[in-house]
Amino acid sequence: MRAFSVHPDAPVQARRAVKWLAPGMGVKRWVTLFVACAALLALGFMHLVWTGPLHFVATRWILRLNALVEPGPVPLWVAGAVVMALAFVGAVWSVLMLNRSLLYATGTSPSMAVDVIYSRRSLSRGARIVAIGGGTGLSNLLAGLKAHTGNITAIVTVADDGGSSGRLREALDMIAPGDLTDCLAALSDSPVLARLLLHRFRRGEGLEGHTFGNLMLATLSEEQGGLQDAMSELHEVLNICGRVYPATTKPATLLAHLEDGSVIAGESQLAVERAGRGVTHITLEPPDLPALPAVLEAIASADMIVLGPGSLFTSLIPAILVPDVAHALRASSAPIVYVASLMTEPGETDGLTLEEHERMIARHLNRAPDVVLVNSAPIPLGVRERYSREGAHVLGTHGYLSGALRRRVRYAPVLQQGHARHDPAKLAAALLALLSELPHAHPDE
């Protein structure tokens, strides 16, 4: 499952040279074949001229070569070895120069070619990981995972109805594009494209507040009558390491059902209207939302399914409420790992404990996560105070975890320094370490 690794402290040129030796690159086999064919060609040529009708020509040529090398005769095997060595060097040099010319002709520098091949070949043999959720948490996770595997599938919630996404959704009756844009940028192998996708317009009538990525997705949705037919082309254009799909292809509205019987409609209204009242469950309107076949195939073939990190009610639960997605998750033999949030969400999950987060996921999915990954690194006091002023507090256990949950909790230091958020590299490493430990069995077994 693990991808070929190169020591990060090695010089750049050395790292690139070593990458050519990574298994599955499709390079060493062809070089070996070329050398073998060149040797056979030389042997065949010598056999042809030495034992055939051109024997006298070959003999005369060798004798003249001997006379040029030194006054005395040179053994034939020495002359042959020199010729073969020169021929081999020339053959290799010709191949290198041919590749260099071809790469430049396609707009790719030779120094970048090894990185591209490494990403496409070596990382393509990495673990098949499905990540579900939305917001900053999911995009951070994807940014960390893409250094280890190219078999990433992000299933993104599209129920957002605020900000740029809400405006585009209302105007065009499309799924919310904001979280899709963030995930596409996180998985793009092009820093320039990633930066452009996230660029937010600060001025311009009708443009202010929108990101370039949101407008691009809106254009594709309008042109093709939805994003479902455009996702494959979009992955190629943006040079995506993995795949990003919406949880559903139809616009959906989040409905939060409260303890007093009232219902809050709209993701953006939950924190505003909840006013401390408890949320009993979440539904989507309409309830019978479709899912892309590619999403269901990714879940069925996954080695690990990751929920979060992300907002419980507005990122994680809406994505698993799509009927076909929920059914595929329950039927999957892959372990489901819930990455617990570090902080509560102001106005949304105030007062909820870690166990209540996990119980809410299990209730909506009808399957409990196999593992709950919890940060073990202490959050500095200054960071906690800064978040507290915004209404967010450390997600705790309130001193108690049930035995059933305690057996499924795993701890790892995944905190990003100076912030109360997950570090992409540390979180990816912790998940891959879990993958090597967890059994791959059907939940009913």
TrEMBL record:
Keyword Transmembrane helix appears in the UniProt entry: yes
MF-aspect GO terms: LPPG:FO 2-phospho-L-lactate transferase activity
InterPro entries xrefs: CofD (IPR002882), CofD-like_dom_sf (IPR038136), Gluconeogen_factor (IPR010119)
GO BP terms, alphabetized: regulation of cell shape
Record keywords, A-Z: Cytoplasm, Membrane, Transmembrane, Transmembrane helix
Positions in coiled-coil regions: none
Primary subcellular site in the record, as a coarse category: cytoplasm
Family: Belongs to the gluconeogenesis factor family.
Protein name: Putative gluconeogenesis factor
Organism: Deinococcus maricopensis (strain DSM 21211 / LMG 22137 / NRRL B-23946 / LB-34)
